[in-house]
């Protein structure tokens, strides 16, 4: 059995300009900048933080790319081994929201088995204005409709603001908790299936022992 601190890879995904790199920066060193970081739009960034979940240290590694995941040469390493995707949109931009189903398909096709967390960023821009001035914003009923349609696909739904920091740190910790508990429950299930002293099933076709992985 592998030893060491459990580690979970989470990739950022979503339309250009929704705040993926800003989320990454909040994760990395809890900062915010209004300047679009050139570096993050041309390459891959990754940062790791440790959380204590159920009295155990757990590592979360967040990966960011400025839309380069759409290019196949970076795509495979970006998606490879991802335990989860943080699918981002801007609550102030309906287009970034209506395109989410395409991104979900993309994740399902490229990062098989990855959990999907939904993150509506830029809540500061919407919370500050009245209902009648919402304009291009994503409404609560838009979100409710979408999340009920995708209930089975989404492992968590968050609303954050990178500008004022609302919801970010809780979101990261919640993802770490979800991924770790999910992994632990899978291990328990596996242990329950292979009872000590039991004989692994034989392949009926050739009488050989079946490989488990
Ligand atoms: N008001 C406000 N602005 C934000 C927030 N998050 C990000 N921004 C701004 O939105 C712009 C785009 O943010 P980025 O983090 O570069 O977005 P991105 O998704 O990484 O963009 P690409 O890498 O080009 O896909 C920047 O000018 C940020 O300062 C937020 O929560 N509130
Ligand atoms: Mg970026």
From TrEMBL:
Residues 193-213 are annotated as: Disordered. Keywords: GTP-binding, Nucleotide-binding. It comes from the Eukaryota. It comes from Elysia chlorotica. This is Small monomeric GTPase. Residues 200-213 have a biased composition (Basic and acidic residues). Transmembrane segments: none annotated. Pfam families: Ras (PF00071). One of its GO terms (molecular function) is GTPase activity. CDD domains: Rab. The lineage of its organism: Eukaryota, Metazoa, Spiralia, Lophotrochozoa, Mollusca.
């Amino acid at each position: 059995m592998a030893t060491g601190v459990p580690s979970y890879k989470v990739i950022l995904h979503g339309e250009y300009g929704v705040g993926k790199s800003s989320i990454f920066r909040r994760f990395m060193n809890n900062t915010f900048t209004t300047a679009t970081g050139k570096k993050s739009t041309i390459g891959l960034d990754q940062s790791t933080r440790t959380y204590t979940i159920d009295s155990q240290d757990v590592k979360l590694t967040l990966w960011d790319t400025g839309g380069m995941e759409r290019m196949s040469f970076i795509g495979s390493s970006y998606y490879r081994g991802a335990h989860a995707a943080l699918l981002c949109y801007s609550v102030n931009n309906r287009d970034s929201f209506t395109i989410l189903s395409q991104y979900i398909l993309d994740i399902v096709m490229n990062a098989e088995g990855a959990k999907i967390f939904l993150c509506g960023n830029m809540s500061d821009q919407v919370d500050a204005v009245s209902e009648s001035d919402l304009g291009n914003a994503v409404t609560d009923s838009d979100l409710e409709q979408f999340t009920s349609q995708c209930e089975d696909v989404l492992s968590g739904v968050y609303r954050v603001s990178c500008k004022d920091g609302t919801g970010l740190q809780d979101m990261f910790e919640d993802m770490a908790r979800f991924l770790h508990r999910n992994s632990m429950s899978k291990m328990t299930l596996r242990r329950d299936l292979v009872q000590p002293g039991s004989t692994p099933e034989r392949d009926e076709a050739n009488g050989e022992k079946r490989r488990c992985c």
